[in-house]
C-alpha cells in the first residue's frame, strides 16, 4: 500500500472516556490498524476530564476491543500508540499542554504534524474547543489539521449557524468533517452504485416509473439511559434532519459528473433545494409524530416513554416520526418520499423500498379481475441494517397454473454471499478523514438547508396544544402513520416480508 493509503496521523480524541469512544471509535481504529490501513506512525491522544493516565486509557481501549469481539493478537502493539491527557476544555493551559504533547509524540513517532481533532463529547463544547485550538497555536502544525464533528450539529438552524460560525473561526470548510454515520454504512454507500452503475435502474429512476419511495429506520430499543438528551432532541432532530434526509438525497440526486467530493455534494445540495418546504401551518399534512406507550417486546413488558429515567412524566417529545417529502423538480414531481423512524418499534431495521408504477395495462390483472389479483407492484428493496443486501420483487408464473402469477423475490445478501462482516461505518469515515476525502460527510450547505426544512415542523409541534399520538411499544407506530400513506393511495410495505 502506498504511503498515501497509510496516513501518518495524530488523532486528538475529545471525549476519550465516553460511550462513543468505547463502543465505536476504539474498535474502528483497531480494525484500521489490523487491516493495514494505519501505518505504525500514528498516535491517539485521549482527552477527557477524568484524572486517568496512559495505562488506564490503554486498559480501557483493550477492554473495548475485547467487548467488540475483535481478534486481539496485535492489541499490545496497538495500545502503545495511545496516550492520555486530563483536560479542562475552558482552560488555555490544557491546550498548551496538548500542543507540547503532540510535538513530543510527533517527533517520537515520526508524524509530520498531521492532526485530526475528533469531537466526541457534549456539543456545547465544540465551538470553544475549536477556537481555543486555534488561539493556542495547536492548529499551526507543519502538516494538515482536520476537525471531526459528531452529531448533533445544532438543534435548530440558529444554533447550527452559531456553532458553524464558531468552528469556522478556526477551521476552513474543507478542514471540517461533519459526521453522519449513516453515510459510512455499506449499503447507504451502495445506493449510488445501484443507481449509477446499473443500466436497468437509471432509465426508470424518475416520476414516470416510480410511484413512491419509503425509508424506514426502526429501533426496538427505547431511550435507555439517554432520556435527558432525548428530551431535548426527539426523533425529528435526532434522525430525520440528518440520517433520513441524507438517504433521501442519495436516492434522489442527479448523477454527478464525477465521483468527486464537490460534484457529489453539489448534486445533493441541488436536490435538497428542490425539496418542498413545509410551513408550520402545513406541518400536520406532511408529518405526524408519536410517542411509545408501555407494551411487550420479545415477550418482555417494557415501560412507556413517560416512565423512562430522566423523562418528564408529561413529555410531548416524539419517539416516532413519519413524514412525506415532495421534491419539486422534473425528475421527481408527484413522487412522495415517505420517511419513518422510531424507538420501541416491532423490529430493528433500516430499509428503503422503491415502489415502481403499475403497467398502464396488465393482461394478467385483466385475466384475474374476478379473482383477487395476484399482480404485485415491482419493488426494489435496499436492506441497510441489520441485513445488508438488495431484493427485487417481480411477478412470475405460478407453477403449473396457466395465466396465474406469483411475486418472485430476487435476493442478494452481502453477509451470505461474501461471508464477511462489512466494516463499521465509523471505520470508513475515520479512514476517509485521514485520506482527506470529505464526500461522505455533511457540507455546511446541507446542514443549513436541512435545518431550514425541519425547523417549521418542530416549531409547529412545540406550539401545539394537541396531545401526542401514542403507539404501543412493539408496533410500527401510531395509526396516523398508516393514514399518511392511505391518503395518497399507498401503504407501508411490511418490512418483515421484504
Ligand atoms: P458521553 O457522555 O458518554 O461522553 C462524553 C465525554 O466527554 C466523556 O469522555 C467526558 O469525560 C468528556 N467530557 C465531558 N465534559 C468535558 C469537559 N468539560 N472537559 C473535558 N472532557 C469532557 O457521550 P457520548 O455518548 O460518547 O457522546 C459524545 C458525542 O458523540 C455527543 O456529541 C453525542 O451526541 C455524539 N454521538 C454519540 C453516539 C453514541 O452512540 N454514544 C452516537 C452518535 C453521536
UniProtKB/TrEMBL annotation:
Residues annotated as catalytic: 243
Binding site residues for NADP(+): 15-22, 49, 88-89, 151
PROSITE patterns per the UniProt record, alphabetical: G6P_DEHYDROGENASE (PS00069)
Biological process annotations from GO: glucose metabolic process; pentose-phosphate shunt, oxidative branch
Enzyme Commission code: 1.1.1.49
Keyword Oxidoreductase listed: yes
Pathway membership: Carbohydrate degradation; pentose phosphate pathway; D-ribulose 5-phosphate from D-glucose 6-phosphate (oxidative stage): step 1/3
One MF term in the entry's GO annotations: NADP binding
Keywords associated with the record: Carbohydrate metabolism, Glucose metabolism, NADP, Oxidoreductase
Domain Glucose-6-phosphate dehydrogenase C-terminal residues, every copy: 193-493
InterPro entries for the chain: G6P_DH (IPR001282), G6P_DH_AS (IPR019796), G6P_DH_C (IPR022675), G6P_DH_NAD-bd (IPR022674), NAD(P)-bd_dom_sf (IPR036291)
Reactions this protein catalyses: D-glucose 6-phosphate + NADP(+) = 6-phospho-D-glucono-1,5-lactone + NADPH + H(+)
Domain Glucose-6-phosphate dehydrogenase NAD-binding: 12-190
List of residues binding substrate: 181, 185, 219, 238, 343, 348
GO cellular component: cytosol
Membrane-spanning ranges: none
Record's keyword annotation contains Iron: no
Family, per entry: Belongs to the glucose-6-phosphate dehydrogenase family.
Summary of the function given for this chain in its UniProt record: Catalyzes the oxidation of glucose 6-phosphate to 6-phosphogluconolactone.
The protein's name: Glucose-6-phosphate 1-dehydrogenase
Species classification: Bacteria, Bacillati, Bacillota, Bacilli, Bacillales
